[in-house]
Structure formats: C-alpha cells, structure tokens
Amino acid sequence: QPALHVSRVRALYRRILLLHRALPVALKALGDEYVKEEFRRHRSVGPADAQRFLREWEIYAEMLRQQANEDRQNSRIKTCFGTPLTEEKLNDFHNEQIGQLLELMQEATKSNKQFNISDDSEYKN
C-alpha cells in the first residue's frame, strides 16, 4: 500500500508540472515553485491529511487540464486559469494556510509586474 501511495503521489506531481506547461510563463514559474514546496512540505503528514492533500491536488490537476484544453481550442479569447476561492473554502483554512495564501498572492502580484502581464486583455497575444 505505501508503495502504491508513493507512486500515486509521484504521478500526480509529474502530471501537475506537465499541465503547468500550458500556463503563461510567469504563472508556470510561480506554480511550479508552489507545487514543489507543497509536495515537499507534506511528505510526512498522516494518512488522513495525505488523502485530503492528494484529493485537493487531483481536483486542481483536473481543473487545469480542462482550462488548458479550453485555451488550446480558443485561439483568440484569453483563458482565465484558476478558480475563485469560496468563503466556505477559506473558512476551512488554518492560519498557516491563510499565511501561505497571502504569500502566494503577493508573489503572483509581483510576477505580474515583473513580466508585465495584463489581466485586462480580452485577447491572447
């Protein structure tokens, strides 16, 4: 069972990094770094936390796969990657997760400025 668990984790990790190739450059760099940190941080969690962690990342991977497919099919309209966090989901976060979310938001904002990415654009370049 543990070997199956490890192979499932590795496969999901690889799949997410592959899916990130569909993201704009700045988002890919930010996403890759975040995924690496999160997977590293959760190496030694208990079984219940590991299942919840994997389930959330599998949901993310599926959402990203769908958005990447939409992006490939729509050559003119810019795809919006990600999904808004609901208040219910935010209320489930621990203080540490809220802190991580704030750091991620600050990094994402900094990346947008660094790479001069405009979210206002209706069309892809």
From TrEMBL:
Its main location: mitochondrion. One of its GO terms (biological process) is mitochondrial respiratory chain complex II assembly. InterPro entries: SDHAF3/Sdh7. It is found in: Mitochondrion matrix. The keyword Transmembrane helix does not apply. GO terms for cellular component: mitochondrial intermembrane space; mitochondrial matrix. Keywords: Chaperone, Mitochondrion, Transit peptide. It holds the Pfam family Complex1_LYR_2. Interacts with the iron-sulfur protein subunit within the SDH catalytic dimer. Plays an essential role in the assembly of succinate dehydrogenase (SDH), an enzyme complex (also referred to as respiratory complex II) that is a component of both the tricarboxylic acid (TCA) cycle and the mitochondrial electron transport chain, and which couples the oxidation of succinate to fumarate with the reduction of ubiquinone (coenzyme Q) to ubiquinol. Promotes maturation of the iron-sulfur protein subunit of the SDH catalytic dimer, protecting it from the deleterious effects of oxidants. May act together with SDHAF1. Belongs to the complex I LYR family. SDHAF3 subfamily. This is Succinate dehydrogenase assembly factor 3. The gene is SDHAF3.
